[in-house]
Amino acid sequence: MANSGKNGNSSAARIVPDRCAQCTDRAERLFCNLPDEAIERFDEIAMQISYPSRSVVFEEGQRAQGIFVVCSGQIKLAATSRDGRTMILKIAGPGDVLGLTATLNDQPYEVTAETLEPCQIRSVRRRDFLEFLNQFGEVSRQAAQVIAREYHEVFLDARRLALSGSAAGRLAQLLLDWARTSSCGKPELRFTMALTHEELANMAGTSRETVTRLLNQFERDELIARHGASIVILRPAEMERMVG
Question: What's 32-77 look like in SS3?
Fold first, then answer.
């Protein structure tokens, strides 16, 4: 049974199955692709929550209460410095597990998680999740793979910011990464841009004005096509060359 997020109604969220065992996308998602017995147990301990757009799921520094598995929608993960500057670290999507390392280490969440659009999420309390790991060895292996993938993504993001010599290259890399993730192996590289230009500039390490100019230039050069919030990568090979 779905519950409503604390910040209001989210009827616009895409409806997902009541149980993970019924999800047709499960095999494509690293953590969700569990043996039948394990996924049945997960359904018993998980609570489904619906959040409207721009709602906080958990905050940086908050003691970890458990994990959150994204079923639909996009979630911004950001960290804030002492002087109030914010850095967006990742845009999480369906299949991503949030709060995993903090929950395992019984530490505060390292980031703030805020929805960018209506989202449906499954939450599992820390105690139940630790018992779940002990009960099913395969789940522990999947959790270790999730952490390893997160480490790899952090490395690639740091490399992108440090080694890409141009704002155009950094922005192109972001667009390519999101399009490939959203396409799930399909030929068309299409995704929904839920970030503002200011937020996109934050991730690309540049200014809002530069992001706006570059997106317009990419469109004029027919590298991308925009239809509202939807972006299609038309010539990925040329954008790859921009990345360097």
Answer: CCCCHHHHHHHHHHCEEEEECCCCEEECCCCECCEEEEEEECCEEE
Q: Rounded to 5 degrees, what angle do the CA atoms 217, 222, 227 make?
A: 90
Q: Enter the DSSP assignment of 185.
A: T
pLDDT at 2: 35
- Which CATH fold topology does 3-161 show? Jelly Rolls (2.60.120)
191 neighbors 155 (Cβ within 8 angstroms): no
Tens of pLDDT along 62-71?
999 999 999 9
**Which amino acid makes up residue 73?**
G
The answer to whether domain 165-243 has CATH 3.30.365.10 is: no
pLDDT in tens, 107-132: 999 999 999 999 999 999 999 999 99
Three-state DSSP at 96 gives coil
**Per residue in 181-216, pLDDT tens?**
887 667 889 988 989 999 999 988 899 999 999 999
Residue 159, strand partner residues? none
Q: To which residue do tokens 């018992």 refer?
A: 131
Domain ranges of the chain: 3-161, 165-243
